[in-house]
Amino acid sequence: MSDQPVSVIPFLHALASTGGSDLHCKVGSAPRIRVDGRLRKLQVPPLTPADTRNMVAQVLPEDLVAQFRDTHEADFAFSLSGVGRFRVNAYVARGTDCLVFRRVAVGATPMEDLGLPAVIADLALEPRGLVLVTGPTGSGKTTTLASMIDLINTYREVNIITIEDPIEVLHSDKKAIISQREVRSDTLDFTNALRGAMRQDPDVIMVGEMRDIETVRAALSAAETGHLVLATLHTVDAQDTINRIIDFFTPHEQSQVRATLSQTLRGIISQRLVRRGDGSGRTLAAEVMVNHGRIAEAIVDPSSQPPIADLIAEGDYYKMQTFDQHLFQLVQEQMVSVDDAVAIATRPHDLLVSLRNAGVIV
């Protein structure tokens, strides 16, 4: 290996050409690209401290240099002509610089190509209220939100404001007009951008992530005053999402928050990704909760109704489904294997019993 530090540019070309989602660069290991959920090592020598230090210098915006030096963390966007746009996290591990690049799409993937349940289109076209997309990191929340925004953009003559950190999918105006605002580049933070959005005549507001009580409060207020608010949370299912929102607030506020949420919430989409049975990538497993009378009552007073998970399981009329109901369908359609479905199921034993009772497995 030469004494000259290597550049990150060839690795970003490799990420784009392989259709990978993420590039990991750390000292002592060859760069790795995530393809269909699995990390694959590039055939190059392990990176040195000088290599990753040079990579950070190549891509880190000048206004974040001091922050990175002081906090050892930085989030930002990076564009490479002819290759694409990337979301970047730079950090320090064991005293050396590391980077993770997430490839950003130009234009949303149509909803039908993502395998999303049809009810999600209904939620996207709600005139007002709060719709939440939840799941762990890397579960496709941004992709789902982008497809919902694209659907609104296709069918509704409205003003859409997005607040993102950073912008991950670039939209062009269709029937709607879309203003995409990036935290730090275009606005100070989510809370300030949400407050500003209320003065920008919005019909739809998309919040990349509800991270703190002020953002949650502003999002609830916007939904309550007649806007459609789409947002994400890092929660595992509908019940966990409702609990997380309520737990942002002090005990004496929680009763009022429950009442507000019961009135403004339209639905919760919780996501997990599971490997396809044919090895061609991953597909989406989704729990979908649609707010209706009994769900609203359960939000206000959990003791008045069965658990929300049970209400979802019984809510076929409202097009609701649990994770395990969707996984059952995916196994039945031979989209995913039994082992992979059971590995991410909420109740693995119950899923196996249901599959046996239906004759899908023996």
From TrEMBL:
Gene Ontology MF, one: ATP binding
Domain Bacterial type II secretion system protein E: start-end pairs: 198-212
SMART domains: AAA (SM00382)
InterPro entries assigned: AAA+_ATPase, P-loop_NTPase, PilT/PilU, T2SS/T4SS_dom, T4SS_GSP_E_ATPase
Homology family: Belongs to the GSP E family.
Name under which the protein is recorded: Twitching motility protein PilT
Protein's organism: Demequina activiva
